[in-house]
Amino acid sequence: MKKWRTLSSEYFYKTPFGNLRKDRCELPNGHIVDGYYINEYADWVNAVVVTKENKIVLVEQYRYAGDDVFLEIPAGKMEENETYEEGILREVREETGFTSKLKPIKLGEFMVNPATQNNKVITFLIMDAYQEFEQNLDATEEIEVRLFDFSILGDLIRTNQLKTQLFTAHAYFMAKDYLA
Questions:
Q1: Closest among 2, 160, 172, 175 to 72, alpha carbons compared
Q2: What is the pLDDT of residues 45-87, one digit of tens each?
Q3: Quick one: 96 and 110 in the same domain?
Q4: Eight-state DSSP code of residue 104
Q5: Cβ atoms 164, 72 nearer than 8 A
Q6: Which of 156, 146, 159, 161 has the alpha carbon at shortest distance from 176?
Q7: Residues 138, 93: Cα–Cα separation, whole Å
Q8: Is 133 left (phi over 0), alpha (psi -120 to 50) or beta?
Q9: Mean pLDDT of 138-167
Q10: What are phi and psi of 49, to 5 degrees?
Q11: How far apart are CA 27 and CA 32, in angstroms?
Q12: Which pLDDT tens digit goes with each residue over 79-111?
């Protein structure tokens, strides 16, 4: 299958959070799309963090766009010049205070929504985690750390007893499969 050709691009806005770009594209069959909109975002990392006691570390926080409180795995966008591994270790430490002596295991790297977004999420598994630090939150973050038995989280997700988002559910089931 052939790729589309970009004829022109213009930005509607650029922010530290993300950009909105409008492209004019030519398809392989010659058809022209005058307005294809791309949301440009930084890549982000997330991790299933499991303690020595087989508890999964979740962060509970209010999400404005979802207008509710959600339980999620620790996650965040990459900072300048960070490797994915450095980024997830920093995010876990900042959001939860947890760390591990074991190297993070990369479970996968996925496009978030390649139809309209250009970023990826890189998912890790961190085992034998323990709390060593205090949280170091941004001014916009209010996060409560919650621990759940790793073995029962899947049932809570499947039966909608846990208010979460797709990336947490996906990462959990990937980690569960990896550990099996």
A1: 172
A2: 999 999 999 999 999 999 999 999 999 999 999 888 999 999 9
A3: yes
A4: P
A5: yes
A6: 156
A7: 13
A8: beta
A9: 94
A10: -110, 120
A11: 6
A12: 889 999 999 999 999 999 999 999 999 999 999
Burial class (CB in 10 A: 0-12, 13-18, 19+), 16: exposed
Buried-state track 40-78, b at ≥16 Cβ within 10 A, e below 16:
ebbbbbbbbbbbeeebbbbbeeeeeeeeeebbbbbbbbb
What is the radius of gyration, based on Cα positions, of the chain? 19
Give residue 168's pLDDT band: very low, low, confident or very high (50, 70, 90): very high
* Structural domains of the chain, count: 2
Whether 31 and 50 share a structural domain: no
- The answer for 42, left when phi > 0, alpha when psi is -120 to 50, beta otherwise, is beta
* Overall pTM surpassing 0.90 (yes/no): yes
Q: Match 């959600």 to its residue by tokens.
A: 70
Average pLDDT over residues 118-134: 97
The two three-digit tokens of residue 75, written as one number: 């996650």
Which 8-state DSSP code applies to residue 110?
E
Whether 30 and 70 map to the same domain: the answer is: no
Domain membership of residue 89 as a residue range: 44-179
Q: How many helices (H) and strands (E) does the chain have?
A: 3, 11
